[in-house]
Amino acid sequence: MEAENARLQEELKQRTRQAEAEQQRAQQLARLSAEFQTVLDAAPDRITCLDRDLRLTWANRAAARVAGLEIGEMVGQPCYRVFFHLEDICPNCPVERSFRTGQQEQDRMADRAGRTWDLRTAPILAEDGRIIGVIEVGRDITQSLHLEEQIQQTQKMEAIGQLAGGVAHDFNNIVSAIIGFAELALMDLAGDSPLHTPLQQILEAAHRARVLTQSLLVFSRRKPVALKREDLNRILTKFQPILRRLLREDIDLRVQPCPGELWIEADQTQIEQVIMNLTTNARDAMPQGGTITLSTTRLRLDPALRRSMGLPDTPEQALLACTDTGTGIPESLRAKIFEPFFTTKAPGKGTGLGLPTVYGIVQQHHGHLTWHSETGKGTEFRVYLPICPSTAAAETAPAPAARPLPRGRETILLAEDFPNMRAVTKAVLTRFGYRVLEAADGVEALDLFQREAGAIDLVLLDGIMPRKNGLEVFKAIRATHPHQKILFMTGYIDELASLDQLADPKITVLQKPVAPSLLLNKVRELLDEGT
């Protein structure tokens, strides 16, 4: 009897220990389940489990937020109804594919709210290998796709800009040669010569071509800008009469500058170009008339937003907005509006350089350009520019009185790789008495200088040349002749920046295209220095 009691007691103890162990396992499982649920609920992605009928058996809180439902309301409902408001399975459904293939699947789908989802699924397997469910993870990638599009657009604009800048630089040299030779021919003509009118027409056509190349150089950010403190409100207000002459009678122009002054670092001519291009673009979008509003605002942008726009770290920003009540920009054209030569106008009616020029100018002014358009309602362009401390505007110096072009007998070393530019520059200089030594590249220039250094009074250098560029030639000459007078001619902003960094008072830079009168005056000015 005692043995039986002992056996029963031992059996009871074992069962008690087993029950306690099972209870501990259950508690541990419950704790792990709660922790797992907490982790899934903290995930930003929507996570769901689905059965073979594509009905939800479980969902995390992110999924509930996306659906706008309680989790209990979602369970038992098909996923295509909960998330996409459809009455039938989504095309190419990744959940259905996972049930069918037993593999992980992935797809992208857009919902009615305009969000794009990256959907990834994986089968849930029983111990015997059967698929008993599928888990789906959905991530909202709308902003990521938008950012990718912005990066691609920026890269495309940079590539187009480089191409446009190269073409414009070469074409600018050709046009400059035409202008130079035409002006030289006019100097030799009598006032009543029958060739006077044709030459003037050649000059007018060449100047129009030069305007196009300057627009391309602005777009590609290769045209130098002369930045100084300007009051944006003053520029806008003074430019208003010119703008009104550009508009038809059925268009109402409203100019609304903000109170006070709005000081920015700007090239006034280029800011006027921005205002004019935006205004004419708005005008062309209103064939039936409407209203154009030009306004300025003083802003204080959030630092994170300012950095995302690429704006300088200044406390305040100036906003120039151009709003129209026109037809809006069609969806199919929106990716092309800043591409050079893209236009919806009839052949011969537009250059397609209006908005690309605006884009280039804003970039050169360290600003940011945004726009918004609604079909049938209108378009708004916004130009953000950094504000600089207030200061008095510089007084405009009176124009110098006209005087005869100066002459000389000195020797000038001319280094220019473009044959026509070299020819016209030599013709201008020799026409006014100078002796000119020609070099087609940097190496030739240095060879000539070494042979005739004692006879050379001035070195005239192009910035970009084969074998050795202008800056390399300059440094080589300075190494042996530190007082040699040197004059640069260039059309690239990158070259100007490099030359400015040298901070050498003996360097003078002329921006191409250079008018013969400006070249002659600057050459004479340099040669007369220190004499």
TrEMBL record:
<dbReference type="InterPro" id="IPR003594">
    <property type="entry name" value="HATPase_dom"/>
</dbReference>
<keyword id="KW-0808">Transferase</keyword>
<dbReference type="Pfam" id="PF02518">
    <property type="entry name" value="HATPase_c"/>
</dbReference>
<dbReference type="InterPro" id="IPR004358">
    <property type="entry name" value="Sig_transdc_His_kin-like_C"/>
</dbReference>
<keyword id="KW-0067">ATP-binding</keyword>
<feature type="domain" description="PAC">
    <location>
        <begin position="103"/>
        <end position="153"/>
    </location>
</feature>
<feature type="modified residue" description="4-aspartylphosphate">
    <location>
        <position position="462"/>
    </location>
</feature>
<keyword id="KW-0597">Phosphoprotein</keyword>
<dbReference type="InterPro" id="IPR001789">
    <property type="entry name" value="Sig_transdc_resp-reg_receiver"/>
</dbReference>
<keyword id="KW-0418">Kinase</keyword>
<feature type="domain" description="Histidine kinase">
    <location>
        <begin position="166"/>
        <end position="389"/>
    </location>
</feature>
<dbReference type="InterPro" id="IPR000700">
    <property type="entry name" value="PAS-assoc_C"/>
</dbReference>
<keyword id="KW-0902">Two-component regulatory system</keyword>
<dbReference type="Pfam" id="PF00072">
    <property type="entry name" value="Response_reg"/>
</dbReference>
<dbReference type="InterPro" id="IPR013656">
    <property type="entry name" value="PAS_4"/>
</dbReference>
<dbReference type="InterPro" id="IPR035965">
    <property type="entry name" value="PAS-like_dom_sf"/>
</dbReference>
<dbReference type="InterPro" id="IPR005467">
    <property type="entry name" value="His_kinase_dom"/>
</dbReference>
<dbReference type="InterPro" id="IPR036890">
    <property type="entry name" value="HATPase_C_sf"/>
</dbReference>
<dbReference type="InterPro" id="IPR003661">
    <property type="entry name" value="HisK_dim/P_dom"/>
</dbReference>
<feature type="domain" description="Response regulatory">
    <location>
        <begin position="411"/>
        <end position="527"/>
    </location>
</feature>
<feature type="region of interest" description="Disordered">
    <location>
        <begin position="1"/>
        <end position="20"/>
    </location>
</feature>
<feature type="domain" description="PAS">
    <location>
        <begin position="32"/>
        <end position="88"/>
    </location>
</feature>
<keyword id="KW-0547">Nucleotide-binding</keyword>
<dbReference type="GO" id="GO:0005524">
    <property type="term" value="F:ATP binding"/>
</dbReference>
<dbReference type="Pfam" id="PF00512">
    <property type="entry name" value="HisKA"/>
</dbReference>
<dbReference type="Pfam" id="PF08448">
    <property type="entry name" value="PAS_4"/>
</dbReference>
<dbReference type="InterPro" id="IPR000014">
    <property type="entry name" value="PAS"/>
</dbReference>
<dbReference type="GO" id="GO:0000155">
    <property type="term" value="F:phosphorelay sensor kinase activity"/>
</dbReference>
<dbReference type="InterPro" id="IPR036097">
    <property type="entry name" value="HisK_dim/P_sf"/>
</dbReference>
<protein>
    <recommendedName>
        <fullName>histidine kinase</fullName>
        <ecNumber>2.7.13.3</ecNumber>
    </recommendedName>
</protein>
<dbReference type="InterPro" id="IPR011006">
    <property type="entry name" value="CheY-like_superfamily"/>
</dbReference>
